[in-house]
Amino acid sequence: MDYSQxxxxxxDDPDTPTFRNRRWSKVPLLGSTELGQQSQIPNRRLxxxxxxxxxxxxxxxxxxxxxxxxxxQSQHHYEAELAKTFVHQLPHSDQASTSPGTILTTFNEAIAxxxxxxAAQETWDALMATGGPNDSHNIERGLVWTYYNETQRIPxxxxxxxxxxxxxxxxxxxxxxxxxxxxxxxxxSDFEFKQTxxxxxxxxxxxxHILCAGDTTLEKPVLEWGGEKGDxxxxxxxxxxxxxxxxxxxxxxxxxxxxxxxxxxxxxxxQWEPASTLESVYGYLxxx
Length: 288
Known about the structure:
The chain is mainly alpha-helical and 288 residues long. The chain contains ten helices and seven strands. The strands form three sheets. The protein has a three-stranded antiparallel beta sheet.
């Protein structure tokens, strides 16, 4: 039997498959599907690592953003409280005054009041809350409430806060939405606030108030120089900033307001007379 015959006989042997299976079963062979599945195991692990890393990065970013927002909110709250403190202390005394009952204060841009955002409006509202954040039933936004008779009470307006009320209303009308107008004043009814005649009243009142105060301080100009040698006067303007003004010392008025707020009952009926002032009528409340 030649070689080819032996090979054919071997292939035709019924025990050949068994032999082959027994022989090669000792060496496990993997099909293409199994090989593909094993090759995907590292990829799956790598993908899981990437997913965990991405999740950690997102979580870290979220925490950082939350922290930044908290810091910004705290900073905004601090600045708002600082602005409220600033306006409650106006006018500031920064120089000695030779006239009794007055202080010298240098005007500036008063950024806390010149803004157009919600924070500026909050500062204006704080300025109107004459005695602080908790106005009592005795004084509200510059109105001193007294008994008129046994069952009724009536308000007297302090001129300075009346003028600020007008400015506050104008600021709100210019820079806030109409939805906020009706809730503006705790001292005046919504109907009165919405009247078209209220704004003209404020312009007229403010003009008289300013003229009555009669501040004739000479405010120095702002000079802008230019040219090659810087000796050419390019622009001249007056902002009022940097000029000292002689202002009324409001420390006694604030003490009176604080003591009025601290009372547990309304003030007695007022015997009003021309030129009556907060100090002349209630000066006894500001002592000590």
